[in-house]
Amino acid sequence: MIELKNGRIAAGERVVIGDLSFVAPAGKVTCLVGPRGCGKTLLVRSLLGLWPLEKGFATLQGEPVTRLSAPWLRRLMVYVPQELPDSLTDALDALDEGLATGRRAVVADDPFVAMSEERALLLANRLQALAGEGRAVVVACSEADVSHFDPTVTLVCQIENPSIRQL
Q1: Where residue 14 sits, what CATH number does that domain have?
Q2: DSSP SS3 for 152
Q3: Distance between CA atoms of 27 and 70, rounded to whole angstroms?
Q4: Among 16, 37, 38, 69, which residue's Cβ finds the most Cβ atoms within 10 Å?
């Protein structure tokens, strides 16, 4: 389970997301959906301890993500960033590389960008299978990308600045 409780995220002087709380349970794919520039990437980075929360806290399986704990907790997660190293073809390759280490949760930031429809469906199926194995899976994506997932195993959280609404 990945949780954010009363989180506030800022970029400079601007509050991007304010007083946000949600739970991404194990066994489900949780899609964080919003338009470009609404704060999805900063939210993902905050869950990983890569971007500071101004207020509130994030946890992974009940363990608080702090500046000190974040490096250790990130070893328990597969992180699929927006920008991949040149050695990886796409998000599916990044996911496979991360899974080789036996990690317990998956956090992906806009993984469907520049993927063919065939590869996007393979990625969505893989993420759903990982959730089915009891992992927490969080995917920041566009509203159109949510259609790749089976709605019976997917939670959709719509980001609306400065808050989040669970659909």
Answers
A1: 3.40.50.300
A2: helix
A3: 23
A4: 16
Give the contacts of 85 (CB within 8 A, at least 6 positions apart): none
Residues 6+ apart with CB under 8 A from 105: 2, 26, 60, 61, 76, 77, 78, 135, 136, 137, 138
Cis peptide bond prior to 162, omega within 30° of 0: yes
pLDDT in tens, 136-145: 999 999 999 9
φ and ψ at 31, to 5 degrees?
A: -95, 125
Task: Work out whether the CA dihedral 17, 23, 25, 31 comes out positive or negative.
Answer: negative
Residue 138 and residue 131 in contact, taking contact as beta carbons nearer than 8 Å: no
- Domain total in the chain: 1
Q: Dump the DSSP string for 35-98.
A: -TTSSHHHHHHHHTTSS--SEEEEEETTEE--TTTHHHHHTTEEEE-SSPPTT-SSHHHHHHHH
Helix axes 117-132, 91-99, angle to 10 degrees: 30
Does the structure show a pLDDT above 50 at 51? Answer: yes
Note the pTM of the prediction, 2 decimals: 0.90
